[in-house]
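User: My instructor asked us to take a sequence, write out its structure as tokens, and then describe one feature of it. I'm not sure where to start. Here is the sequence I was given:
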Amino acid sequence: MLDFIIIGGGTAGLSAAVYACRANKKTLVIEREAFGGQIVDAPTVENYPGIRSISGAQFASDLFDQAEALGASFKCETVISVARDGDAVRVTTDEGNYSARAVIVAAGCEHKKLGADGEEELLGNGVSYCALCDGAFFEGKTVAVVGGGNAAFSAASYLAGIARLVYVIHRRDTFRAEKSTVEKCAGLNTIRFVTNATVKKLVGSDELEKIVIDENGKTREIEVDGLFVAIGQTPDNGAFGVELDGDGYILTDGCCRTDVKGVYAAGDCRQKSVRQLTTAAADGAIAVSTAINDLM
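Assistant: Let's start with the prediction itself. The structure tokens for your sequence are:
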């Protein structure tokens, strides 16, 4: 029987694997797609302590290599269910069954996409889903934030201190964000609201140059250097048999325990306020340490 099964091969999952293997625990990481997680798409990472600058792909590759060198094993399979099985936790995938003394769910979540032409092609070249991660690259430039909730206005407020001009583009004429937050942004000279508008196309050869929007039924072009999409995230935690909040995120205590004995959660898949590389790595370490103290 394994000591740890880690579901998800992003920063949280691979960090957990590093800590588990360093504790001499037999560890399997299961990932349904590509190892590395969302950070693979980031052209440059400059907000991870101790690393001045690195590509997201290199960061993910280095972390994978570190976990592998320490003894972690890996399988590309889709998890169907997780359940207690006596003193162990059983993980069923599309390929078979595995048992471990502890399971760490680090399945992450996906940013909702606009679905606009050019969005995928310009990802990392002007298109971002994280203002806190990438905002510093747009100092003194013109950017746009798409969304009308608290996340969008948090991004706009942050970018207003960096960029020359920030457009907030929302498909309705009212915002879902808290009134005080909206009023604060409305009072900033660097922020412009564009309502009843949807982004239809992103234009640029190597870098984003402008966006084409439908505003009140009319086509309009806005020249921007960056576009930050903040229309929500989508977790996919239904297979793990643990308690979720109303948005589908895994509920945990401060030590990453779920409501199921032997099952822990780490990274973006769990309910939390900050989703960054540093917090994902921290969650992986905390979940492993907690499991070892609880069960081993």
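For the description part of your assignment, you could build on this observation: The first strand starts at residue 2 and ends at 7. Try explaining in your own words what that tells you about the chain.
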